[in-house]
Design brief:
little secondary structure; 14% helix; elongated; glucose-6-phosphate dehydrogenase (NADP(+))
Amino acid sequence: FANRIFGPIWNRDNIACVIFTFKEPFGTEGRGGYFDEFGIIR
């Protein structure tokens, strides 16, 4: 990690979870098959 301040603490020992949320103005209809095919949906 290139940031000298956060590099020492931003690692798997100090961060339990990272969540990204993207809000879209449209639905997800028709895209579920794509994500399921590549194992993205759990």
